[in-house]
Design brief:
By secondary structure, the protein is mainly alpha-helical. It is built from three helices and no strands. The protein starts with 14 loop residues before the first helix and ends in a 7-residue tail after the last helix. The relative contact order is 0.15.
Length: 130
Amino acid sequence: MKHTDPYQNPDGSRLLTDMAIVARLTAEIKEAPLDCECKPKLDETLAHFTVLERQRTIHKHLLDARHCREQIETMIYYLNDLDELGPTEQDRSVYVDIALLFDDIARIAHEGAYSMRQISEATGRGDPTT
């Protein structure tokens, strides 16, 4: 069963949305006319929060990709039944079942690739910790 995240969009686009919110919030606060001694501390806190948020979302996508790999490994185990099939197989539904396994592997592989691309996008933004 796929881990569901109530804050994730149906297409899986969470990382970029989260980071976009952090970037917009940071920009707004930096542009705010704050004439106080706390401004440098606020900037430092925002920078630290950005790093933490990036790490959190990268970690989530890494877990998602690993989960996809585990699902694919399980499905490949069931695909071993393909070796026992011959052209005279009486139960034709077994071919449909195997086709569905291939379809599921393709879908899950697409999800795993999406997560890895999200990590690539996040780590390409100058985070010194990644």
